[in-house]
Automatic annotation (TrEMBL):
This is Ubiquinone biosynthesis protein. SUPFAM superfamilies: S-adenosyl-L-methionine-dependent methyltransferases. Residues 47-125 form the Methyltransferase type domain. GO terms for molecular function: S-adenosylmethionine-dependent methyltransferase activity. Transmembrane segments: none annotated. Keywords: Ubiquinone. The keyword Isomerase does not apply.
Amino acid sequence: MAERTNDGSAGDVDYGRIGLGYTRYRQPEPRIAAFITAALGEARTVLNVGAGAGSYEPLDREVTAVEPSAAMRAQRPTHLPGAIDATAEHLPLADQSFDAAMATFTVHQWQNLAAGLAEVRRVTRGPIAILSCDPEALDRFWLNDYAPEAIAVEARRYPPLPRITEALGGKVEVIPVPIPRDCVDGFGEAYYGRPERLLEPGARLANSAWNFVAPVVAERFVATLGCDLTDGTWDRRYGHLRSAPEFDGSLRLIVGRL
C-alpha cells in the first residue's frame, strides 16, 4: 500500500502542510473544464480520482470523489459530495461501477502509476480522462529562465505521456489544451502573461514544485524576477505574452477508451 503522510496524502507532497488556502489560487478554469466535459461524453456516473478540493468535477452528473488528503477533503465546497478517503492504487469500489472516470493534476502524485490506472480501468466501463502535463514541454514556460530547478523537478515528477498511454491501453488520444491568459486555475503556466502573480507566496505554495526546491531558489527567483519587472527586462523578453490570448504550454488531456 502507498505510504501516506499524517494528513493522509499518498503522494510525494504533504497537502496537510501546503494545501491550506489552496482554493484561493486553484479554481476550475471553465475553458479547460470544457475539454474534460467533452471527453466524458454522455457518462452519467463519474469517478474523480485524486479529486482534491473538487476542481473540474461536473455538476450535472453523479460524481464519486476519491481523495487521500484530509486537508484537501476539508476544502471541498458544500455543493459537492464528500470524498472517499482512499488512494488510486486501492479503490474500495466494485468492478465497472462507473460510466467514466477523470483525474486532474494528480497522476504525478501517485505512488504507482500503472497500478493506479489499472484500478481506475477496473472500476470504469467507459472513457478515462486524465489532465496532466507533458514533461517534455515544460521548458516552454519562461519560468525555466528564472528557476530551472523548479522546472526540472516537475519534469521528473510528471510521468512521460507514453507511460500514461501504455498503462491506459485501448484507444488513447492525447489532446493539447491551450492555457487562457486569464486562467483562474493557478498552476504555474497559468501566469505566463501575469508574472507578478508568481511573486505571491500563496501562488507558489499552490504549485507543489516549489516544495521540492531549496528555499534559496525561491528567494533568488523572487529577487531576480522582481528586479526584471521593475527595470523592464522581463517585458522586453516576454512582454508579448501579456496580450497573448492563449499559451501553448505543457497541458494535455489524455483520454483512454476501450
